[in-house]
């Protein structure tokens, strides 16, 4: 279940970091990857909340909102920097998403 969110985010991270290493600006393909990574987190959230009975907390809501808004925010910043550093922003933003998904699981299921 956790892989639903982690795999698309790691693929997007690899893609963004590779594009930065190749000196390429963010393009439409990275936008599609960002949307797919966000959808992966959304599907993971629905499966997580419907599958187990966890406690509600402000921490979980914070991680959830960050995981859902981070890819869009990274994409906006990347488009403002139309150089290789824009792709770097997308890649680093995507690297944070698996950590957020793991913390969502820990807060919802473990505690």
UniProtKB/TrEMBL annotation:
The question of whether Membrane is a record keyword is answered with yes
Q: Keywords in alphabetical order, please.
A: Membrane, Transmembrane, Transmembrane helix
The portions of this protein that span the membrane are 29-48, 60-78, 84-105
Q: What is this protein called?
A: Uncharacterized protein
Per the record, the domain of life is: Bacteria
Organism (species)? Rhizocola hellebori
